[in-house]
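Journal club prep — side note

Before the paper discussion, L.F. wants everyone to see what a predicted structure for a comparable chain looks like in token form. Sequence:
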Amino acid sequence: MSELLQSPPDVSASARWRQLVWLQGDALWTQQQAAVLLAATGAQQVLWIGQEAPAPFEAVPAPRVQRWLGRETDAVVLDAYAGFNPNAFGQSVGTLRAGGVLFLLTPAAAHWCRFDDPEHQNLTTLPYESTDVGNRFLTHLIRVLQADRQVLSLLQDAPQELPARHFLSIHKLSARLRALQASASSEILPLSHCVAPFRSRDQQQAVAEILQALNDAVPLVLTADRGRGKSAALGLAAAGWLEQHGGDILVTAPSLSALDALFERVQAQLPGGEFKAGCYSHVRGSVRYLAPERLLQADSTLCVQAELLLVDEAAAIPAPVLSGLLARFDRILFASTVHGYEGTGRGFAVRFRRELERRAPGWRALSMTEPVRWGANDPLEALSFRMLLLDAEPAEPSAVRHLTTAALEYRRLDRDQLLQQSALLEQLFGLLVLAHYRTTPGDLRILLDSPNLSVWVACAEGQLVGALLVVEEGDLPADLAAAIHDGYRRPAGHLIPQALIGQEGLLAAAPLRCLRVMRIATHPALERRGIASALLAELASWAQNQDGEGAVDYLGTCFGISQDLLGFWRHNGYEAIRLGITRDPVGGTFAGILAQPVSVAGAGLIRAARQRLRTRLLHQLPAQLRQLEADLVVALLPSTDVELADDERAELNAFAVHKRAFESCEPVLWTLCSAGPEYWQRAGLSPQAQCLLVRKLLQRHSWEAIAATSDGGRRLLVRQLREVAGRLLCVPPMGMMR
């Protein structure tokens, strides 16, 4: 690998810039102008995003642009007449190589913000229609585009008095674009003239430092903006490790497709192997992909055999999963995109740093800053950041650290203020990005325009330090509810009512109105001061004061269940009403729904849902939920009174006090255990004893499996169960149903 670590030659950065051309006019006219300009520039690899494209181009719908990640294009056409999809825009910008052009096709700026964008249908849920969607996002785009002096525009029937700096003729524009591409191609040396396989000095240095950290068995955190060759660097490092040491390497990411660039570089550097089912096998060793959740659950032998673990797009993996991986591997690398369109690395960097300091204080940080696909300070990259707020940041810690909770104002935000106060918008979106690892540019449009969404904030001294995003759900027509119940319909939105109707059979949820907390965020500098709880209390107070058509029946939320999050929501009056039966493939958690009643009808619905949850849990714990953590079962299982017949109590007493065998009275032991955690706690059972009840009686794990994670074998465990049974027999009935 030493001969590969030489410096590549310099390349002029300014000559490798890319360009946005804004074509404003009628739909057909803008398509025609784009086709003429593409022909003039001679672009070969063209990504045309829209519903239709003139020959010889092929239109790619916005949702399929993600498949182009990792590929390079000479030009991109985004036809906003088919809808402006923020995620597709961000993804397509990342495919453009140096000298490339992005053509944005829109109505004239004066009309675009009033355009009935087809993307509106993705922002609406019943009872709203596309005409109810706001125009704030498009207004924001227009302002950013008009303020950028690098944007070139072509306007249909443009008046003569418009400044030539912005609005060019088709001939002048063609000439400008030809000059742009000629300059780029003349300045970029062929790859064969570079020190293969590196695309930049930055990438070369990164590979060297990765290999050094892995050799030293020191955790490494690699961060980079998109287009820096980060994933390719991981592949080069993996190939270098196998060349030097051989062995087995594990890699993980939110999906196998996210590792295309990594596997491409491994295969290019170590040809002659076989790639099959996410594993590249070579005479020097192997590079194998496992999903994050599967990696945590994998057989320990597989992990011991692996030389190291490379984690790509770590920002899109929940911090608890990353912590589990850190605990399992001595040689580990975490790589993350800083300003991404599929999750952000900033929240990862802020929150995971604490875990690294605690578990591996000698960890190292590395960043890649030099683009490999385009030039440094590329104006299109900067423009796309401003359009999608990819670099939005929350308030500076120094500006908020001194604030007291008493000084904070909690209020429902008028979203028109976000357009009038750009700093407030950036602080809000920056805080949401920091708090939630899956925030994407599409969430910016939802935040600004979705008609069923409201925003609650905590502010002081012009600084935003907390936020809630809340969506309206419920109030569904009876015929639609019946179709959902019978499995024929799944309309957009209404997550909680649909789950209660379609999965739990609770048609009573249809006419009730719910406010679902979709996001909740607190500034990291002010965490654990009750700000999030205060926001929830403000929301509850507001909901209780609504009446008439706006009356609210219950509040709800849905998230991947963990002990910390569950404790927070239960502390704020929310109780579990549903639990999914499949783990998230990335986070490894089960999705749960929690709710808090507001009206009498809402309280009745939640009571019925909790009874249903208890029945489902007791049925599913030995099967689909057998691997659910016992402490989560204790927190989730609703409690109830259990009536025992005299002969059943005698049977239990024979087990608890005498020598009756466990197997002979297991059914009645299960009945007693099914009373639930509140009953167990009233008996004074320790957390360890409660988990034993869950694992042995409710989940029916073997004695060997339980003994493997405890301090004793079967004999000790049976003795503990005898003591537990004796305690439970002494507890009087609760006299109430939870």
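L.F.'s comment for the group: The radius of gyration is 29 Å. Keep this in mind when we get to the figures.
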